[in-house]
Design brief:
alpha/beta; Pantoate--beta-alanine Ligase, Chain: A,domain 2; 2 domains; six-stranded parallel β-sheet; three-stranded antiparallel β-sheet; 10 helices; 9 strands; globular; ligase activity; Rossmann-like_a/b/a_fold
Amino acid sequence: MIVITTKNELVQKISEIKNDNKTIGFVPTMGFLHDGHVKLLEEARKANDFVVLSIFVNPLQFGPNEDFDSYPRNARKDEEIARLAGVDFIFTPSVLEMYPKKPTYTVTVGSRVDVLCGRSREGHFDGVATVLTKLFNLIEPNRAYFGMKDAQQVAVVDGLITEFNYPIDLVTVPTVREEDGLAKSSRNVYLSEIERSQAIVIYKSLVMAKQKINQGMRDKEEIKSFISSLISNESDGIIDYVEILSYPELDEIEIMNGKIILAIAVKFTKARLIDNITFEVE
C-alpha cells in the first residue's frame, strides 16, 4: 500500500494504471474509518484491479458553526484499516495541496439540496460536489463507491456523474449498522452512554414506518407524525427533520408510489445523527 500526499504523484500513479488498462475503484472519505467505510473498500476490492482511498477533511463542506477543526482524525489507525482492507493507494492531501489558493471556480448544485440536511447546511453539497469534481478528475475511477447512510449525498453524486458525463459507475452500498440497528458513523463517538442506548429508536422508527406503509398507510403526515412521536417518546434527541420524498430526485410527493426515501435527522448533545431507508411503494 502506498500513501500519496501530492496531486502530481497521484496523477503519475494513475497514469501508470491506465496505461496498463487496469480498472480503478475509488472510495472518497474524510477519514476516521469505521466498518461502513470498510464495507465500501471491500466492495471496491472485489470488482477492481486497483483500489484508491482518499482521506481529506474538506473545509468547503463545513459551515461557519460546524466542526471542521474538531472533526475526528486518526491517520495511523486509518492506514492500518486501509491496509487490511486491501487498499492500493491512499491519497491524503493537505488543504493547501487541494486548495493552494482561494478557489476561483466551484460547483453549485442546483437540485436535490434544498431538503433534508441540505436545507440547514447551505453550501455543504456545493463543497461535496467541488471536491469530488477535483478527485474524479485526478483519479479517473471506473467505479466510485458511496454508502446509502448519506442518501442525499448519493443522490447529489448521481446527478454530478450524470450531468458532467463522467464515465464512472456509481456503486451504492447499504448502510452498515451496529447489532442493535444504529447506523455506523464517525460521529457516534460523541454520544453519551445514555444517548447511545436511546439512538436505536431512529432506525426502529424507520422500520416500523415502512411496515405501516406496506400495510396500506398512505397519509404522509400521519407517517411522519408516527415517526416523530416514537423518537420523542423514546429518546432525549431533538428532531431536526422527518421527511418522505421521491428518490433519487428528492422531490416532494403527493401520492406515495414508486421509489421513496424515509429520512431522519436527530440532534443529541454533541452529535447530529442521520438515517434513512429507501424502498419501492406500489
